[in-house]
Specification:
This protein has 343 residues and is an alpha+beta fold. It has twelve helices and ten strands. The structure holds 3,4-dihydroxyphenylalanine (DAH).
Length: 343
């Protein structure tokens, strides 16, 4: 009798220890404990060996054990039927979860990040500068002294309280601030927002974004500039892209150039986007003017450098097929949501 009681106790512990079991073992459990040759049946056959005065007590215990084993089986089965894998009753872990609304990156940020990452691969690091700038860093140091006619190229917003302050008209101010730090060589890429007093339309806005690049070291040449920009457009637009450099004028570079790429819409055959020329202008560039180096305390006889500046809006319009620049700043979620999975 004692042996039997001990056995029952062990079986109970065994059943209690069965934790999260996969569904295949439910049947194994049934056969082992509840089958026709199972443990419960076996124990029943022991009844004949129990002295008659103990039969009632043993019968009760056995019955209790049988119910315990059966209810474990029934619960287990129910759990599996209702939720597949979890043992928590009533939770179906195969159902899809509550959707978490995923935000999206702004198309300007997507474009900016792409441009930055290409230059980072070439060893450029990111620098930023202030949007409210003084006249010196936005103009004078960049070889645009007061009354220089080229200042009119950029319609500037001045700050009323202090006429020496303005909203930067380009990211070239960051060049100056970095060069002033005097740590050479310098290889930076500078993204940022810029402001110009222009009439807002589908094609232009009073603020937009640029990325500036600057490389200063000994013996930097125009060939380095061309190769760097060529690598950039190939990474950005693919190996088949064609480039051309046109002579241009910027006060802060000499010589200066503008770079065009073959039109990404028509492949160079001429369309309305490239105004039938087959080319799209994407950036301005040149060798940093010796006056600019001197203004920042750098010896132009020892160091040379190249710089370039490009807008972000235009390539983003092209890439995503957007026709109105104003969409970028309206924050209409119907527009923004379209970029949830864009890269
Ligand atoms: N700052 C010029 C602009 O806003 C763009 C630019 C042209 C930047 C040539 C440069 C450069 O660094 O070398 O139009």
């Amino acid at each position: 009798m004692d042996q039997l009681l001990e056995k029952i106790e062990q079986y109970k512990q065994e059943i209690a220890a069965i934790g999260n079991q996969a569904s295949e073992t439910l049947e194994a459990y049934r056969i082992k404990f509840l089958g026709t040759k199972g443990i419960v049946k076996n124990l029943m056959t022991e009844m004949k060996n129990v002295p008659s005065e103990k039969k009632k007590e043993f019968g009760q215990l056995l019955n209790e054990f049988k119910q315990y084993a059966e209810s474990r089986y029934e619960n287990w089965k129910l759990e599996l039927e209702s939720n597949g894998t979890s043992n928590e009753p009533g939770i179906d872990s195969t159902l899809p979860g509550d959707p978490i609304p995923v935000g999206s990156r702004h198309p300007i940020s997507l474009m900016r990040n792409q441009i930055i990452s290409i230059f980072q691969r070439l060893g450029f690091s990111v620098s930023e500068g202030p949007e409210i700038e003084d006249d010196f860093h936005n103009f004078t140091a960049l070889n645009l002294p007061e009354h220089h006619p080229a200042r009119d190229m950029q319609d500037t917003f001045y700050i009323q309280q202090n006429p020496d302050w303005l909203l930067r008209t380009h990211t070239s101010n960051i060049q100056i601030r970095e060069m002033e730090k005097g740590q050479l060589p310098l290889r930076i890429i500078c993204p940022g927002r810029v402001y110009r007093n222009e009439t807002i339309s589908a094609r232009s806005h009073c603020f937009f974004h640029q990325v500036e690049g600057l490389y200063i070291d000994e013996n930097v040449s125009f060939a380095d500039l061309k190769q760097t920009l060529y690598y950039f457009v190939q990474e950005m637009y693919g190996k088949d892209v064609k480039v051309r450099f046109r002579p241009s004028y910027f006060p802060f570079t000499e010589p200066s150039a503008e770079m065009d790429i073959s039109c990404q819409i028509c492949g160079g055959s001429g369309c309305s986007i490239c105004k039938r020329t087959g080319w799209l202008e994407i950036l301005g560039c040149g060798m940093v003017h010796p006056n600019v180096l001197t203004n920042c305390g750098i010896d132009p006889n020892k160091y040379t450098g190249f710089a370039f500046g490009m807008g972000i809006e235009r390539p983003a319009l092209l890439k995503y097929g957007i026709t109105d620049i104003r969409l970028f700043s309206e924050n209409d979620v119907r527009f923004l949501r379209q970029f949830t999975s864009a890269t």
